[in-house]
Amino acid sequence: MQEIGLILEGGAMRGVYTAGVLDYFHDKQIDFPFVAGASVGACVATSYVANQRGRNYKVFVDYSSHPEYLSFKRLLTKKPLFGMDFIFDTLPNQLVPFDYESFLKNNKKLVVATTDIYTGEPVYYDSFESKEELFKIVRASSSLPFVSESVLHKGVELMDGGVSDPIPINASIQNGNKKHVVILTRNQGYIKKKLKFNRVVKHTYKKYPELVRILEQRHEKYNQTIENLENMEKNGEVFIIQPEQPLKVSRVERNKDKLHHLYMDGYRQAEQISDALLNFINES
After folding, report:
1. What is the per-residue DSSP string for 87-133?
2. pTM for the whole thing?
3. What is the rounded CA–CA span in Å between residue 131 and residue 66?
């Protein structure tokens, strides 16, 4: 499986679907040497690369209702909707420890997609000097516009990787992979609509005209990427895994039952398509 990449879409709390798929991969020892993720796709990828089966479930489901995880009251006080310090510091270092040693020992290559808010271009990271740097970059990749603050890393101001590269398959192609398994968090037939409230966008990010530009064009890039993926799937280059039905879980979902069921949907769907997936992987 040396020339196959695993690509993980973002989607905030909808990433629990991806967590279910990845736990099935763990149970059946389906490994990929290359993993690329944007936003929550990068978050779940860290536990997958560290070989920590079930860790993503704990983070998404067990702590989803924690007041420091997600709070609309905090947003009203002009603080980030998601408790970024809690998610990227308290959880991995105290409550649901991240095994950085296992992450380092694993032979998988992880690429995290972020967005440079000055240029509007994607910035990819594939090496991390410490656990702190890893989670700083993943935090940057997960810093959603309007509800999170940007992250300054080595002189570059970064935000949500899903803005500039929502499904980072180009990172896999540039790595030389010939095939790609793509896990989406939207159902087949989903079409992203144009962003509303353009005035709000321009006002909020008036210092970053290129960020405004890609936010306004985000729906076009996303829909074009999906079209490209579907064409690549027809050519045998891509294998897509995605929800069968429109999700009842929102990007800011806190209901544990809904999150659990979506996790199980991901796990069961991976089980259902496993034979086809293995055929795709093993075909020369």
Report:
1. IIIIIIIIIS---HHHHHHS--EEEEEEEETTT--EEEE---SSHHH
2. 0.93
3. 24
